[in-house]
Amino acid sequence: MTKLSIEDLAAELIRKIEAGDIGNEQGKMPSERELLAIYPVSRYTLRQALNKLSKMGWIYQMQGRGSYIRFQNNQKPAIEQGDLGFNEDLTRGEKNIRTVKASKRLVKVSEALFLPSQKQFAKDQHFIEVQRFRTLDDKPYLIERSYYIPEIVGEISETMMEGSMFQALAEEKQLTVAFIDKFIQSKPLSQEQAAFFHLEEGMPALIVRDDSYLRNGELLAFSMIHYDYRMATLYMHKKLFV
């Protein structure tokens, strides 16, 4: 069998991913040893091809645990790699984002209003649902609804909900978010949401759905955030690979 180049191997793996012919139910790719037994390539070529797929957004790699496929509703990655953020990322640490109303409750998976894009749960799974209304410079800015995995985060205090949840989890529970998948869309505001933003019901809102993962690849939380479109600033830092 003719040896494959890095580009050829990457293309073959993408074809397998698109067809659903590779990876287990959790999206875990075969190990290096298993892939080397299938494809006539060197270990260097395999690692370079996997690295290329990671940069292109097809997979993500976890040290010591292997490579995992990014399941995103069977859609191809739109960009190679980048960092996406909003005003609170740009102003982090300046304390101008404030929580004015917050609530939490334990809910069943069937009660969740949405679910993450890459993970399935057992029917008896529970989440800690956190809803927060937050201002930017004392003006209504965002409404957040998040679901945290209780087996990972444990108890969420009232104090934690007042500021940055991720900062509190890192400082109090040593849980550090390693990467976040974000999905952007627009939907009309409900009556409650419109009242907070001082807008009319049915007007558009910028919505970000995100799934947050720890360094070991475990899902920590998944969220839906409604922004006041008049105040939200979206920026993209994109890395280009040649």
From TrEMBL:
Pfam families linked to this entry: GntR, UTRA
Superkingdom classification of source: Bacteria
GO biological process: negative regulation of DNA-templated transcription
Domain HTH gntR-type: 3-72
GO function term, MF aspect, one: DNA-binding transcription factor activity
Gene3D superfamilies documented for this protein: Chorismate lyase-like, Winged helix-like DNA-binding domain superfamily/Winged helix DNA-binding domain
InterPro entries to which the protein is assigned, alphabetical: Bact_HTH_transcr_reg, Chorismate_lyase_/UTRA_dom_sf, Tscrpt_reg_HTH_GntR, UTRA, WH-like_DNA-bd_sf, WH_DNA-bd_sf
Keywords (A to Z) from UniProt: DNA-binding, Transcription, Transcription regulation
Protein name according to UniProt: HTH gntR-type domain-containing protein
Organism the protein comes from: Enterococcus casseliflavus EC20
